[in-house]
Batch of 4 targets.
Target 1
Amino acid sequence: MVQHLTYRRRLSYSTASNKTRLSRTPGNRTVHLYTKKVGRAPKSSCGMCPGRLRGVRAVRPKVLMRLSKTKKLLSRAYGGSVGAKHVHYGIKRAFLIEKKKIVVKVLKAQAQSQKAK
């Protein structure tokens, strides 16, 4: 004989907030255990990095509110909002722009010294 299972709460529809898993009790009864919704890690704010950010806990917003700051962020520049690869790219780009400015300044100085001669 198959055991007839009923929900333990009032909501009797299989909605997103009413998901359950089956569990066997020590008294050998099969009952519904209510599961929590799964959280998702935040996406990168740069918009170009695919997927989710690593190092940030994937939890629901209410749980995220209770987490400590160290579990919500990463200890680097833009940690918790932009991916590591994109931060690296930005630093490299800024360095190259500064280097280009210096090269332009040196070339201008050389051209001026050539004119003076």
Target 2
Amino acid sequence: MSAELEAQTANISLNENSAPAPSPAKASKPKKGKGGDAAAPQVDRPEFIEHRNRIFDELFQKQKEEIASKPREKITITLPNGSEREGTSWETTPMEIANSISKSLA
């Protein structure tokens, strides 16, 4: 078998002219920046957008005031495994409970 391998490799040349041609360069794509393009032209928004934003702001403010007026009371949160956590009504969030159990849950 070594004689067969020797015969196959006898005519291989390692000079510079026989090197494989480099692969053709790929066309470069424009890179996408994060957060949008700062040079993007401003587009005029339709009038209804301003009206919609105004209504949203009014409703959001009303909701914040309503939640702020709710009584804050101590509560006990019972988890599915039976353990209990202390919290405050209208303040303690599910994310805070998850964080108190394990950082990997949040």
Target 3
Amino acid sequence: MATGSASTDDFYVRYYVGHMGKFGHEFLEFEFSPAGLLRYANNSNYKNDSMIRKEVHVSTSLMKELKRIIQESEVMKEDDKEWPLPDRVGRQELEIVMGNEHISFTTSKIGSLIDVNDSKDPEGLKVFYYLIQDLKCLVFSLISLHFKVCGWYRTSQQQLKPPYRSSQFK
């Protein structure tokens, strides 16, 4: 666990999970910047997939909700010194800057709650595990919704264009 100081208005969240495998470096990463920019990257070389990168601007109310979720999880009180170290299976990183607190967690990939319960600090790792589940769900929903709505909007704008010329109705 690493802590430091930052200005009181700062709020930043970054999550990374990945591994090196037979398909190369495969990972999922997202971050929320203080300006409300959500950046998402997913790299999988399975079946020659290419990297997916998305950026979405989110509202201040969503940033406040994200901050509330993190505060209520109480993850900022946890310490990763008893958590499993990253290994060949992979690693997870969570970095949060909230006001004057700056915390960074690093652990191995967690397959299920069995891995959490078998750790030296099951209560602390459970807080981390459930927060990560919530954050991933939020990010996937935002990315999916944003690009479906934008795609629908573009498609609907094309469909709303009249298929006729105005001169036909004189």
Target 4
Amino acid sequence: MAPKAIIAPSILSADFAQLGADCKRTMDQGADWLHVDIMDGHFVPNITFGAPVVAKIRKHVDKPDTSYGRGTFDCHMMIAEPKKWVKEFQKAGCDLYCFHYEAAFSSAAESPEAKSDAKTSPKELIRYIHDQGLLAGIALKPATSVDVLNDILENPEPKERPDMVLIMTVEPGFGGQKFMASELPKVQALRQKYPDLNIEVDGGLGPGTIDQAADAGANVIVAGSAVFGAKDPAEVISLLRTAVDTRSGKL
């Protein structure tokens, strides 16, 4: 039985001219989390925004009362040197810091202005994120095998295990791409092995693709244009939630 459904609309599809109001409205329409896409123009070719914007929208959405609670800012860090930015985003109001496995063998420096010849690792980075009081997520690009997570998820040290795994169902970097069903076997493999793990899918999710993702075992659903571009966003959020909860035995 998978964990409960968590619907995390991606604010990359929100109206940036009224971003705070849009984020609050989406929460009022039934969202659980907000998915915050951070892109640096290096790890991915696109650039979005940084910690100052996150701090501004945090003022419009109440911080969660509990871990994984309503109002969680799920920050998807599509950046080349993720350790450098953990403290900045913690100060800005991030709750869950999700870095890419592919970027986890980078500088061990602990601030944007610092330099270090030392390199971090996924386990070290997860521990560091936890030490800052944040939840830790780890994301995989489509080209990365899910097998790279075996040692990380089997780690006997709890502080070095992620709280969530994100399986990308598009190439990271741009919104509005077509859903890649080819990535769902990764979700299935993880769900079979880790029934209680929060497994997030991101990319091309909406009413037409949610059933495939839910059947595979995903429980954290990122949807951008499908929510923010809908005539009735609350209806779409409810539909996504029902699809997941029906398959996990919650309904």
